[in-house]
């Protein structure tokens, strides 16, 4: 079985995100970029399925600017077999990404697509679900455990109030939650080997998809700064403040 | 981490950064606590074993060793990026094998010596140290008095060496000794002396600041066969320099890591600590320290990477190495000092890694040639440049 793993290039999770001075978006110039951590978990899960003999090939896909090739190279160094780069400077929104991925699925015929449940930049958490709808495939989102038996994949989902396990018929879409696994380091020999692994490059037009954004970002602003708290001298004062100032009781 | 690194080396440096953050940093607290309690500064075997296993798994082994000896043969630029990451923690850990004498042995070892000493050394099965300084001769080799005299086919070494690191675990020591009448560098030869050789005495252990230890060695009619001469007789100084050049670049990379860590801690403290109604970060004195540190770190990294790239291209970078040795150690010294000052009394404690980093940087201004000798060498090079 072939597994497709989309990987997104995002601002590194250690970097404090800053809003551009003109309020049009997040500053990425001169900022360290890395693979979306949830996608790293997706790559790791695919590698584990390959190590178990369930998967035969792992194809990593990245969509966006030319530098996404670096993100693909990281996936290849972890253990993916080859990469596909869909190169565009257009700001890609979830629906466009889902359409592009659907077109790649039509070419590659994977038995499973594993994605991060969301990207840590815009936190949309929509691409996996949209892709499942476009393909008409079953979806197991927010997976904390995955097991494949024959033509069925059982996905344990992290939902409000506990865990839910669903059984899906393959081919299927899985999106990863934080606790699914701990991604491995790319070892030195594998980093060197990744240099020789192929990355195919194409444009959205090659896939017959118009990636133009459907949503307009009106403005991006930093969250309001938290105001300093106050210390109260007694319970009576606290209750009074809650009643007269905070007006919550 | 420099952006001009090749993609795979950048990925490697990223991986090492993760290794430092996830595997080494968590050990820092216990390493510091033991050192503060007067116990050995280092990792326990229980702490070290899983790290070594992880290194094996990740291929972080024999990084600077040539491929024919089973190493990764990474270029100097990649090694510098790796050493910078390692410099960020006080947890004393080097990717095995710790092989500062590798380049000297590679350059001059005879075929027999390659088999007997270099191979096990490169594979991490043997360790070694080098004895250069003497009680009366440190940065200036002219005062070296340890002498080896030919006796039949043997050499007999007599003299005293000091400030030698890694002695107790060393399987062999490279001893620099005078064999000719040359006044300065001439007539100095290198000998390989195995542990346990008669007349090779570990005189005493010397506790150094920064948690380290060095040793004083005595050679008393220490007899070795001619096969133990390392390299050309009377021409031991140049290959020894080769070893020092690489080490000096490496020290520059460590200083970068140390300064980065200190600056990171300084900034964190400056953002959080409020005095007289304002954050430290809002005070100009602190801001200037931050700006100066960031600028110097940037400059130092450019110096280190430039010299590393030249070294990879086969260019002699002795002068650059001297400049780096001076600049990097003084830069890291001032950044760690400012970080300690920003922390106030907390900065004076042994609970923070800053004091140990600062002490280690202090030592670095002396070993592998004191700053003043390097300045002298740099100046001499420029003063004698024109007729």
Give structural notes.
The complex is a heterodimer of chains A (249) and B (387). Chain A has one domain (2-244): Rossmann fold (3-Layer(aba) Sandwich), CATH 3.40.50.620. Chain A is built from 6 helices and 11 strands. Chain A has helices at residues 37-51, 68-78, 94-108, 127-135, 188-194, 235-244, and strands at residues 2-6, 9-11, 33-35, 57-64, 82-87, 112-116, 139-149, 152-159, 162-169, 172-176, 199-202. In chain A, helix 2 (68-78) links the parallel strand 4 and strand 5. In chain A, helix 2 packs across helix 5 (188-194) and helix 3 crosses helix 4 (127-135). The longest helix of chain A has 15 residues, at 37-51. The model of chain A has no long low-confidence stretch (mean pLDDT 94). In chain B, helix 4 packs across helix 7 and helix 7 packs parallel to helix 9. Chain B is an alpha+beta fold and 387 residues long. In chain B, strand 2 and strand 3 form a beta hairpin. In chain B, the strands form 3 sheets. A 4-stranded mixed sheet of chain B has the order 1-4-5-8, covered by helices on one side. Chain B is globular, with a radius of gyration of 22 Å. The mean pLDDT of chain B is 92. The chains are: A alpha/beta (249), B alpha+beta (387). The A-B interface holds A 34, 70, 73-74, 77, 185-192, 194-195 and B 7-8, 11-12, 14-15, 18-19, 57-60, 63, 72.
């Amino acid at each position: 079985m072939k597994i497709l793993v989309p990987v997104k290039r995002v601002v590194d999770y250690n970097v404090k995100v800053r809003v551009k001075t003109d309020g049009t978006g997040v500053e990425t110039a001169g900022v360290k970029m890395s693979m979306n951590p949830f996608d790293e978990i997706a790559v790791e899960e695919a590698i584990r399925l390959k190590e178990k003999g369930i998967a035969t090939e792992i194809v990593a896909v990245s969509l966006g600017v030319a530098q996404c090739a670096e993100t693909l190279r990281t996936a290849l160094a972890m253990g993916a077999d080859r990469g596909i780069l869909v190169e565009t400077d257009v700001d890609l929104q979830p629906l466009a990404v889902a359409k592009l991925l659907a077109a790649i699925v039509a070419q590659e015929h994977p038995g499973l697509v594993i994605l991060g449940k969301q990207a840590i930049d815009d936190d949309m958490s929509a691409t996996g679900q949209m892709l499942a709808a476009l393909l008409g495939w079953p979806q197991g989102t927010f997976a904390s455990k995955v097991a494949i038996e024959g033509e069925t994949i059982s996905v344990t989902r992290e939902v409000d109030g506990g865990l839910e396990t669903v059984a899906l018929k393959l081919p299927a879409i899985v999106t990863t939650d934080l606790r699914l696994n701990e991604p491995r380091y790319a070892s030195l020999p594998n980093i060197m080997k990744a240099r020789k692994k192929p990355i195919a490059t194409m444009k959205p037009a090659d896939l017959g998809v118009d990636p133009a954004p459907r949503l307009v970002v009106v403005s991006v602003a930093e969250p309001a700064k938290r105001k300093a708290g106050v210390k109260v001298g007694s319970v009576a004062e606290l209750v009074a403040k809650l009643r007269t100032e905070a007006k919550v009781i | 981490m420099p952006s001009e690194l090749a993609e795979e080396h950048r990925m490697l440096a990223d991986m090492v950064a993760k290794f430092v953050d996830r595997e080494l940093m968590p050990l820092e607290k216990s390493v510091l606590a033991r050192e503060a309690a007067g116990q050995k500064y280092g990792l326990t075997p229980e702490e070290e074993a899983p790290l070594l296993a992880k290194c094996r798994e990740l291929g972080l082994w024999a990084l600077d060793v040539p491929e024919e000896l089973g190493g990764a043969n990474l270029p100097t630029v990649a090694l510098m990026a790796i050493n910078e990451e390692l410099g960020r923690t006080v947890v004393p850990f080097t990717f095995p094998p710790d092989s500062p004498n590798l380049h000297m042995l590679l350059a001059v070892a005879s075929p027999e010596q390659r088999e007997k000493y270099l191979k096990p050394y490169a594979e991490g099965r043997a360790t070694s140290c080098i004895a250069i300084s003497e009680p009366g001769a440190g940065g200036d080799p002219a005062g070296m008095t340890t002498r080896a005299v030919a006796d039949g086919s043997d050499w007999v070494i007599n003299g005293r060496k000091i400030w030698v690191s890694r002695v107790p675990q060393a399987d062999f020591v490279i001893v620099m000794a005078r064999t000719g009448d040359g006044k300065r560098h001439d007539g100095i030869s290198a000998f390989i002396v195995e542990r346990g050789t008669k007349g090779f005495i570990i005189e005493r252990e010397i506790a150094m600041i920064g948690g380290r230890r060095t040793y004083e060695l005595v050679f008393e009619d220490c007899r070795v066969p001619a096969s133990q001469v390392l390299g050309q007789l009377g021409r031991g100084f140049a290959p020894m320099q080769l070893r020092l050049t690489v080490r000096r670049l490496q020290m520059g990379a460590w200083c970068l890591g140390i300064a980065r860590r200190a600056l990171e801690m300084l900034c964190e403290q400056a953002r959080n600590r409020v005095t007289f109604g304002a954050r430290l970060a809002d005070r100009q004195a602190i801001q200037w320290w931050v700006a100066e540190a960031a600028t110097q770190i940037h400059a130092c990294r450019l110096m280190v990477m430039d010299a590393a790239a030249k070294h990879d291209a086969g260019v002699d970078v002795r002068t650059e190495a001297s400049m780096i040795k001076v600049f990097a150690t003084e830069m890291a010294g001032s950044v760690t000092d400012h970080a300690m000052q920003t922390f106030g009394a907390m900065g004076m404690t042994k609970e923070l890694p800053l004091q140990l980093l600062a002490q280690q940087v202090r030592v670095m201004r002396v070993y592998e040639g004191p700053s003043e000798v390097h300045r002298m060498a740099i100046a001499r090079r420029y003063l004698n440049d024109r007729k």
